[in-house]
Design a protein that fits this description.
Order of helices and strands: EEEHEEEEHHHEHEHEEHHEEEEEEEEE
Strand content: 35-45%
Largest sheet: 6 strands, mixed
Number of strands: 20
Strand order of the largest sheet: 7-8-9-3-10-11
Amino acid sequence: MSSLEISNLKVSLGNKLILNNLSFKLAEGQIAALLGPSGCGKTTLLRSIAGLIQPTDGTIRFGNQLVSLSTLLLPSHKRKIGYVPQDGALFPHLTVAGNIAFGLDRSTVTKDQISQTVKEMLTLIGLQGYENRMPNQLSGGQQTRVALARALAIKPAMVLLDEPFSALDAALRGDLRSDVIDLLRASNTTAILVTHDREEALVSADVVALMREGQIIQQGSPESVYSTPISPAIAISTGDALVLDASKMADGSTSHLFNPSSQSSLVESGHIVIRPEEIKLDSNLSKAQLVGRISKIEYYGHDAMVSVDVKGQSIKVRIPGPFDFAVDEEVSVQHTGPVRFFSGTA
């Protein structure tokens, strides 16, 4: 296993700058999620770490080993990287056993050792007895498991996963993601998962790195990037969020929908970010901070997202089930969470 340190990485493809002074660290055995929109450079970063792209500037280190800079590129096959692409990319002419064993060096590993490794990997991914099947005889989830086994068979320093679950249906995606993360943690494998899915990033990773336009603009634990985003845009990218007009007052208070203030002079205008689960609803209006009317209820079983009209604004509130609220009901609306103020435009 190995830690990862990327410093001031730049990657240009043709005349286009894809990665721009990107820096990132990952400790040995940690799992990171790269979260960002299409075109922000996530796959380019993964391919740079794998040695498939040479950087224009900057460095990549595995532990104490320098593997990439503009004048040096350690070949991919010498990096001990396990790569799981988006579609799994199994070799269609090879059996499951053949795919798993593909990356093993025949000059240093005996046939018996190869057979043993294949057996161990099949047990690890829960596909014992599938060694002679062809890829077209496997489900999508099984193909992803085999691709992961192929990546782990070489005992890699790191595993890179490029949206491996995106083509699967929601129920299978969640179960398989959980299984894969458990496998990576059981083997103490350093890993990076590329995803568009904010829930997947928060659930899977020790470190979440938020990418925009070729840079990592915020990174930290799932809890920290969710609870303390650096901007309203980042707040929205990591979960449901309400962005409301607000003002910073001279006495240090923040004036907003849930805390209107006219007792002090205005210092600056901006916005606050509130998470829907930080708002509480109550049918008892006697001590209401605000009164709103429910306009919509989206029921998910374990919880619901309730839209409430308050002073001409529609506020989304996440409430646990079961509940007794109904559309058109008047309710008390109270904000109970932190106030995250951001100056300027949202």
